[in-house]
């Protein structure tokens, strides 16, 4: 699982959870892979992602080296910055560990690089649960 | 005018000018300094916490108010007087001279040729009630009112709820459960002082309700207190509900499931009969506030009515059998309970006939899935570098990497099958396990969503709708989704779908990996062998009819056999048959399902090789 994926995941569907973001990341196995750098891709991704969640996730697994704690001004033309973000977004791959809901503490395991976000029916809000009473 | 005043005056002028410019562009209403009976309040509205009460309080000094139009999320609002001369005197007294309540902002006003025509519940007077509701004024005399209030003994500890005090007679209403325990009646039945109810109803011409209540809840509200919107539990109480208002008037707000609101004035000493639609299909409540807005003196303007202490007697009859079959399932606990158990049944069915089956057949399934479909590839090619495309139910990920040349997307897949997710990661595809009715994504994150051959595996209408709602939720504004489901009708305009053509009978060819129907590739690996189900499509060990592969669908909800190739491929007896659940879609069914989700618009719907498909856009 790439940190970009971590950045879009949320546990909002759980009963009683209102935001469910960002999920706390624990990694027991990480691999670093090579991905071609595309500055256009990274600079278009920056407004979409939650940068502080990315920074915190990278920090929590010790891979924030070189990543500034805030988005650089004029980042579209700052290749050093874009490369640092590129590395953290796409090249750091969490092979095993877990994701933890910040509100309920529910853990979602990551095995063989795949987060298991499946939930049981008793953990989620019922369909049509609006109750007039 | 001294220098300071002149500069304030100038500031107000230019503020007014700017506001007129931008609000007239936004509302298409002619605004200006030419007097009319309508006033635009330029720099205060709901978005700035100015309430309708504030407007009435401020303007009613200058004349009778005809209406107030508060616009949601706007920094301006409108009000009208009955007389233009009143509007002029208000304008002269207030514009640039007075502050808004609770602020140090000077009011900026302008005249308007008209006010926006928005549904405004307060403007909807004369007094309207929700269907089935009747208010009988002067139902008790002043002496009876005094006696009823006298009869009650309030003490500070008992029956104190957050927002009001209550006493129960007959049976205790249990607030957490919203029901009564009918095995344990209270010591105090309905007090004899209430015996006038039934004969009085008859003399007032409402003898059709032979009404003998066995449960009474008395509420006592102090100024500022209220009761949250609720519906009297359908399965617990009969129709109607009777409510007697004592000591003061109050406005009760009714709201139906579409959000329509009707405020109803309940005068002191009146009896409200809440029956039929108003009892089952509308919630009612009393806002916690210190004033009500009422239409005073027979439709002659809006005024504020200060709240006073109020006592209400709510009379109800217990339902002997806790079942309700009303036509308002959205507010019906009884039907919701049924719906809930239906959802559990659906989840159970999917577990056995979708999820488990995919885990068993995943390798074989993945082998048969490699040829992407042209229309879907075309959709993938519409995305640009740096966009996010989520594939809901991605299977083995065959739509990954189908973007246009030199385009770099962030594509992420989600599938319920652990085996298929493993297949994806082995191919370097970013994937997770998850559920299409509970997508684990942030709201508004995706530029595009693919959902191919997934929703037909959901076993109830509600779950299929929830899947569309989830797709709509994760899409960004303007984002697009492409959805494919299997069609019940496999023959469109007399052309057989590829799926039918693949039958030996129809084509005399063994189905191979030629371009095939999207979710049926190879699903009858050997259609000639299904003779055991040819004559009878019901099998006693299965909950649904079994579909005969490569034929038209006889039912909407079916089990479709999948013959798994055994280890020894040649041996027929080693073939294991699995059954996958499908809900096959009628014409327009997918489009109508999508129209139940207001956040999206159907851009295109078509029939594509035995599938129904829609292209959706999330509204900006």
Automatic annotation (TrEMBL), chain A:
Pfam families, sorted: Trm112p
Main location: cytoplasm
Molecular function GO labels: protein heterodimerization activity
Gene Ontology cellular component list: nucleoplasm; perinuclear region of cytoplasm
Alphabetized SUPFAM superfamilies for the sequence: Trm112p-like
Family, per entry: Belongs to the TRM112 family.
Protein name, per record: Multifunctional methyltransferase subunit TRM112-like protein
Organism, as annotated: Thrips palmi
From TrEMBL, chain B:
Domain Fe2OG dioxygenase positions: 212-319
Name the UniProt record assigns to this protein: tRNA (carboxymethyluridine(34)-5-O)-methyltransferase
Main function: Catalyzes the methylation of 5-carboxymethyl uridine to 5-methylcarboxymethyl uridine at the wobble position of the anticodon loop in tRNA via its methyltransferase domain. Catalyzes the last step in the formation of 5-methylcarboxymethyl uridine at the wobble position of the anticodon loop in target tRNA. Has a preference for tRNA(Arg) and tRNA(Glu), and does not bind tRNA(Lys).
SUPFAM superfamilies in the cross-refs: Clavaminate synthase-like, RNA-binding domain, RBD, S-adenosyl-L-methionine-dependent methyltransferases
PROSITE patterns: FE2OG_OXY, RRM
Keywords attached to this entry: Iron, Methyltransferase, Multifunctional enzyme, RNA-binding, Transferase, Zinc
Enzyme class per UniProt: transferase
RRM domain span: 37-108
Species for this entry: Thrips palmi (Melon thrips)
Start and end residues of each stretch annotated as Disordered: 500-544
Stored PANTHER family: ALKYLATED DNA REPAIR PROTEIN ALKB HOMOLOG 8
Catalysed conversion reaction: 5-(carboxymethyl)uridine(34) in tRNA + S-adenosyl-L-methionine = 5-(2-methoxy-2-oxoethyl)uridine(34) in tRNA + S-adenosyl-L-homocysteine
């Amino acid at each position: 699982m790439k940190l970009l994926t971590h950045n879009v995941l949320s546990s909002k569907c759980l009963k009683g959870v209102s935001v469910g973001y960002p999920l706390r990341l624990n990694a027991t196995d990480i691999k670093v892979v090579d991905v071609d750098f595309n500055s256009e891709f990274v600079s278009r991704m920056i407004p979409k992602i939650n940068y502080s969640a990315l920074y915190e996730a990278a920090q929590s697994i010790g891979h924030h080296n070189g990543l500034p704690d805030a988005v650089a001004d004029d980042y579209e033309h700052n290749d050093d910055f874009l490369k640092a973000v590129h590395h953290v977004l796409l090249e750091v791959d969490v092979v095993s560990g877990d994701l933890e809901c910040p509100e309920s503490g529910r853990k979602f395991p990551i095995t063989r690089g795949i987060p298991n976000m499946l939930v049981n029916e008793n953990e989620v809000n019922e369909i049509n649960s609006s109750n007039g009473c | 005018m001294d220098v300071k005043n002149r500069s304030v005056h100038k500031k107000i002028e230019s503020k007014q000018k700017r506001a007129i410019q931008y609000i007239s562009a936004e509302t298409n209403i002619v605004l200006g300094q030419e007097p009319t009976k309508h006033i635009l309040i330029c720099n205060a509205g709901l978005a700035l916490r100015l309430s309708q009460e504030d407007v009435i309080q401020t303007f009613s000094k200058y004349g009778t108010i005809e209406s107030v139009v508060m616009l949601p999320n706007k920094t301006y609002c409108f009000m009208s007087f009955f007389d233009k001369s009143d509007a002029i005197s208000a304008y002269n007294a207030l514009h640039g001279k007075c502050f808004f309540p609770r602020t140090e902002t000077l009011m900026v006003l302008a005249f308007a040729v008209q006010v926006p025509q928005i549904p405004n519940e307060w403007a909807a007077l004369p007094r309207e009630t929700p269907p089935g509701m009747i208010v009988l004024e002067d139902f008790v005399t002043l002496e009876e009112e005094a006696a009823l209030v006298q009869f009650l003994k309030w003490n500070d500890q008992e029956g104190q709820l957050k927002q009001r005090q209550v006493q129960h007679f007959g049976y205790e209403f249990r607030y957490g459960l919203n029901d009564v325990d009918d095995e344990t009646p209270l010591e105090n039945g309905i007090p004899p002082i209430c015996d006038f109810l039934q004969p009085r109803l008859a003399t007032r011409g409402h003898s059709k309700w032979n009404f003998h209540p066995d449960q009474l809840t008395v509420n006592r509200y102090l100024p500022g207190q209220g009761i949250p919107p609720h519906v009297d539990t359908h399965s617990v109480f009969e129709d109607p509900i009777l409510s007697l208002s004592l000591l003061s008037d109050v406005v009760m707000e009714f709201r139906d499931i579409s959000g329509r609101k009707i405020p109803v004035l309940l005068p002191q000493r009146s009896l409200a009969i809440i029956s039929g639609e108003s009892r089952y299909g509308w919630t009612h409540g009393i806002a916690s506030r210190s004033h009500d807005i009422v239409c005073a003196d027979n439709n002659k303007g809006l005024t504020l009515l200060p709240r006073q202490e109020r006592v209400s007697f709510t009379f109800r009859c217990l339902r002997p059998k806790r079942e309700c079959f009303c036509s308002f399932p959205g507010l019906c606990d009884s039907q919701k309970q049924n719906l809930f158990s239906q959802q559990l049944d659906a989840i159970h069915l999917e577990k056995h006939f979708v999820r488990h089956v995919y885990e068993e057949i995943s390798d074989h399934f993945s082998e048969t899935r490699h040829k992407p479909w042209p229309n879907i590839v075309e959709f993938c090619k519409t995305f640009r570098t740096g966009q996010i495309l989520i594939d809901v139910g991605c299977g083995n990920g065959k739509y990954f990497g189908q973007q246009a040349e030199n385009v770099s997307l962030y594509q992420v897949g989600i599938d319920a099958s652990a085996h298929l997710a493993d297949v994806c990661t082995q191919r370097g595809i970013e994937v997770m396990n998850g559920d299409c009715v509970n997508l684990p994504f942030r709201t508004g994150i995706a530029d595009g969503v693919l959902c191919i051959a997934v929703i037909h595996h959901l076993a109830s209408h509600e779950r299929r709708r929830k899947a569309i709602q989830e797709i709509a939720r994760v899409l960004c504004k303007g984002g697009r989704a492409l959805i494919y489901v299997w069609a019940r009708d496999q023959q469109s305009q007399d052309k057989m779908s590829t799926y039918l053509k693949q039958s030996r009978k129809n084509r005399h060819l063994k189905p191979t990996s030629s371009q095939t129907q999207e979710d049926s590739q190879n699903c009858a690996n050997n259609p000639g062998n299904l003779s055991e189900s040819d004559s009878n499509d019901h099998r006693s060990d299965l909950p649904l009819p079994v579909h005969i592969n490569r034929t038209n669908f006889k039912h909407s909800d079916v089990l479709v056999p999948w013959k798994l190739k055994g280890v020894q491929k040649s041996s027929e007896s080693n073939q294991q048959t699995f059954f996958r659940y499908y809900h096959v879609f009628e014409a327009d069914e997918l489009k109508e399902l999508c129209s139940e989700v207001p956040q999206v618009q159907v851009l295109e719907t078509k029939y594509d090789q035995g599938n129904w498909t829609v292209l959706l856009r999330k509204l900006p």
